[in-house]
Write a structure and sequence with these properties.
155 residues; flat
Length: 155
């Protein structure tokens, strides 16, 4: 009986103190604001990490591109330095001169054989063969139907 009589007293207490309801509303609103702020902070963190990773990728691509340009420049310099005209000028500057046919002496070496070109060399067979594939895997669907009709297995 005490519960029944205390119920109107409880309702009366809430009506007397409206600040309790306001406090609940404010608490719920603050809870929603904190939740939204946490989700926004998480989204901002993920977005910032993605942006940082994107900038790092751009930096690495730029470094790769610079390395490729540098390599191409070095290859160009090497080609220029080893060109026939430059090599001839350098050889003349070092005191070399073109050889005359009368100055050439050939020496015969006993047992020396001229190497055969690699393109004519016989390639050894390594025993590579096509793998054996079971007929079940090479049979078409039409072949299978034909076989089933002849056997009488397809009703």
């Amino acid at each position: 009986m005490q519960n029944v009589t205390s119920l109107p007293h409880l309702v009366h207490a809430y009506r007397v103190a409206p600040w309790r309801i306001q406090r609940q509303w404010v608490g719920n609103i603050l809870l929603v604001v904190v939740g939204v702020a946490m989700i926004a902070a998480l989204y901002l963190d993920v977005t910032a990490r993605a942006a940082i990773a994107g900038r790092e990728i751009q930096g690495l691509k730029l470094a790769t591109l610079n390395s490729q340009h540098s390599s191409a420049d070095l290859e160009t310099q090497l080609a220029r330095l080893t060109s026939m005209r430059v090599m001839k000028q350098r050889a003349l500057a070092l005191g070399f001169r073109p050889v005359k046919s009368q100055e050439i002496d050939y020496i015969l070496v006993a047992g020396y054989r001229k190497p055969a070109p690699e393109i004519l060399a016989i390639v050894p067979q390594l025993g590579l063969r096509a793998p054996n594939i079971a007929p079940e895997y090479t049979e078409s669907l039409l072949d299978w139907f034909d076989q089933q009709i002849h056997i009488g297995g397809l009703q």
